Amino acid sequence: MINYQELKKIGLSDKEAKIYLISLTRGPETALNLARLANIARPTAYVIIDSLLKKGLMSSLSKEKKTYYIAESPEHLLSLIRLQKQKISEAEKYFTRLLPELKAMANIKGEKPQVRVFEGKEGLKTVIESILKSKTKMIYSIVPADELFRLFPSKEHKGLMADPRVNKKIKAKIIYTSKKGRIYKFKDPENLREAVYIDEKNFPFKCGIDIYDHHLAFYSYKGSIMGVMIENNDMAETMKIIFEMLWQKYS
């Protein structure tokens, strides 16, 4: 037997579903009886009945100076669903017209940067995967290599970042520090990576940075391991300038 909870799934409220189902099974009833059977206060029952009348799910008839209410055929529920579908479709069309202007408002100059935070080692993997899924053709990186490889050993990092980047033909310019000195050749064989070593004593980087398109990604490799992604064109362009200043000085 159908429970009134099932009728709530098609858009009826709790009390509407109760009264409609009771009325459907009992036939014509007064508002007082419907309120009693549904365990609803009589004033509330009148409001609910009025709502069902407006939706075309109930009708009324007068008999012996009393007003009786009766549920309309269940087919009317299908009409209600179709009406809701039509309203949703109209709302979608209206919103589609508004969307370009809303997006323009969201992208006005000087807007707040969009910032996302990802926690733990898995969070850093998510950031890296997001970069590789983007349409960028160049990544500018500042890397404290010892910290990076402590968290992501060489083989793991190769499978996570290096190999996918090469497969996608994404170029990289890397400024890195390491207690081991120069661990990268200036150019790799595929000519997709250039790497410049700078002395950790002069530039003791504590976190990694990737700059790509109009995004920044920051990586904390120890302690509270996390990745922070920032989407803001001005910030990204400024960081590229700082990167190029270092690159020109030390390359």
Characterize the structure shown:
The protein has 251 residues and is α+β, with helices and mostly antiparallel strands. It has two domains: 4-73, Winged helix-like DNA-binding domain superfamily/Winged helix DNA-binding domain (Arc Repressor Mutant, subunit A), CATH 1.10.10.10; 114-250, Endonuclease, Chain A (2-Layer Sandwich), CATH 3.30.870.10. The protein has nine helices and nine strands. The protein has helices at residues 4-8, 14-26, 31-38, 42-54, 75-106, 120-133, 145-151, 154-167, 233-250; strands spanning 58-63, 66-71, 114-119, 138-144, 171-177, 193-197, 207-212, 215-220, 226-231. Strands 3-9-8-7-4-5-6 form a seven-stranded mixed beta sheet. The protein has a two-stranded antiparallel ribbon with strand order 1-2. Strand 1 (58-63) and strand 2 form a beta hairpin. Helix 2 crosses helix 3 (31-38).
